[in-house]
Amino acid sequence: MSNHAYEYIEKIKDELSNTKEITETIYKNVLDFISSTDTSPIEIENVFENLAICSDTIHKKIFFFTVSISIRHSARVFESLLDLILNNRDTIEMNTMNYLYWQFVHYIFSYPELNSINIKSKVWRILNFNISRYESIFSDLLLPIPANERNEDFVLVLTDQFLSYLHGPSKTAADRCKILMEVMNKKVLLLNSGEAMSTQGKIPFFKAFKANYNSDLLNASQIEWKSCKIPFFQCENIMPDPEIIRIILSMVRRQRPSYVITIGTGGIVAPLISKIIPTLSIGLLPSGISITGIPFQTLSRPLNDNDRDLLDSVGMSENSIIIGTFGSSILEQTSWYTRDEVGLPSEVWLAALVGGRLDQELDNDFWDMAEKASQYELEYVIIGTYSQSNLARVESAHPALKGKIHNIGFVTDVLSYLDLCDLYLNPIRSGGGTSCVEALSVGIPVITTPFGDVSVNVGNQFQTESYDSMVGLIKKYTSDFEFYKSQSILAQKRASKLLNSEDSFIKIISEFNNRSNHLE
């Protein structure tokens, strides 16, 4: 270890010896060390893993493990952290355990390296243990209501986050409510529990994730989606609060819905409700099984052996997974531009890179591929969140890309910019499911590896094995007009299927009702 690195580590150790908690000074010293040292990533990872192991409190251990994980996203180090949590689960406060669960789920979503059976199984065990602790508080309310005593005309729809219709999960929740109300003739209440990425019970966690919360909706009694007015209620941003949970559970017992639909993993509230009323989770990751305490969930592809092993590891069966297409709903295009009007070059091929987490998703491997592909007169349009500092670093490391990356930023009318592009390139990531459907809908071929939601949504016709083979496929698109034209037609056909959320959702609900009725 260099003298520079040694000095910083000694600062951290000195501060640790004088406090039982992780202080702002410790956090700053860690950030300074990581940003300024020339020590190799693997050595930095090992330094903080050892600090975690040697720390004298569990909060310090958790913090330093998260620092170590942030360096290279090591599955081995993450499993060590999960083992620490499981081995000390009785001593960790409930809300803190819930806080950690949300952070861990986001780890798995954000970093493909951490998406393994062992890791998902351990996070699932953490969740199930914590749900059982909440169950003990509300045991008087968790008796199941028989089917013949439930109101077959009423359905409760739960979401753990509702922001706006620029937010994919919010669109999904509103879209399913509209189908329930206008096609299936149900009365509906859309309840936002506000649990997503809860900060209740927060402890020091390096580079913790935090969800947005739309406080403007706190007093809203309805929301409107495509002319459908949906009854709505939003919990305060203090969940999971026992008093609010008790009010919700009491409401469920009074209203006795026929069944409950939850959009996403469901946090703590939905698993508790599932003890009273049959509950289905509409998974927001079409490509993978969600870590949830809800007994039924959807999946947009057939089960494989890894899925079965994961389910078996947490005591669940294949019967809990309902296979069906994840129908998407997109905002209509409202503006039309030419390339000149928005400052894009007119005589080159343009590839769209779309997303809200592109700073972490567009890594060096992706830009290595992009630099090779740029030889085919291809330039890149970033639509979403990508920092100018990262862009500067990319252009410095990849001189052939200088001036060929056009950072549009966040836009409300994504289709208006996709309409100017020729291809949609998907980095190796879990998300991107909605934007790829938007691209397909305007006839833009998608290029993706066989990983994540995009690969499931677009199907085999738009997949390629790796970043290396992606370059060859880009060459084919840019040089073979007939191939491009046929793929563009396939794209629009695929979009038509994915945008038919009504038929797929009704089939899923029918299958869910059949399975849940057999259990009663």
**Whole-angstrom Rg:** 24 Å
Nearest-integer average pLDDT: 93
Beta-strand content: 5-15%
Shape: globular
Helix content: 40-55%
Structural class: alpha/beta
The tally of helices reads 20
* Main sheet strand line-up: 3-4-2-1-5-6-7-8
Give the N-to-C terminal Cα separation.
Answer: 63 Å
Number of extended strands: 13
Q: pLDDT below 50 for ≥5 consecutive residues: which ranges?
A: none
Task: Produce the secondary structure layout.
Elements (H helix, E strand, L loop, with lengths): L2 H15 L6 H13 L4 H14 L3 H15 L2 H13 L6 H17 L6 H21 L13 E9 L8 H15 L4 E6 L29 E4 L2 E7 L7 H14 L1 E7 L5 H5 L5 E4 L13 E4 L5 H9 L7 E3 L25 E7 L2 H4 L2 H10 L4 E7 L3 H10 L7 E5 L4 H5 L4 E3 L7 H9 L4 E2 L4 H7 L8 H13 L1 H18 L2 H19 L1
Helix pairs in contact: 1-2, 3-4, 4-5, 5-7, 6-7, 7-11, 13-18, 16-17, 16-19
Task: Offer a concise description of the structure.
The protein has 20 helices and 13 strands.
Description:
With 520 residues, this protein is an alpha/beta fold. It is 47% helix and 13% strand. The protein has 20 helices and 13 strands. The strands form two sheets. An eight-stranded mixed β-sheet has the order 3-4-2-1-5-6-7-8, sandwiched between helices. Strands 11-10-9-12-13 form a five-stranded parallel β-sheet, with helices on both faces. Helix 16 packs parallel to helix 17. The longest helix is centred in the N-terminal third of the chain and has 21 residues, at 117-137. It is globular, with a radius of gyration of 24 Å. The N and C termini lie far apart (63 Å). 42% of the residues are buried.
